[in-house]
Amino acid sequence: MSRLDSLHAALDELDASHLRRVRRDLESPCSPHAIINGRTITAFCSNDYLGLAADSRLADALAEGARRWGAGAGASHLVCGHYAVQRELEERLAAFVTCERALVFSSGFMANMGIIPALVGRGDAIFADRLNHASLIDGMLLSRAAMHRYPHLDMAALERQLAGSRAKTKLIISDAVFSMDGDIAPLRELMTLAERFDAWLLIDDAHGFGVLGPQGRGALAEADISGERLIQMATLSKAAGVSGAFVAGEATVIEWLMQKARTYLFTTGSPPALAHALLASAALIEASDERRAHLAALIKRLRSSLAQKRWKLLPSRTPIQPLIIGSNADALALGDALMKQGLWISAIRPPTVPAGSARLRITLSAAHTADDVDRLTEAINRLED
Question: Do 15 and 7 contact (CB within 8 A), yes or no?
Answer without folding.
Answer: no
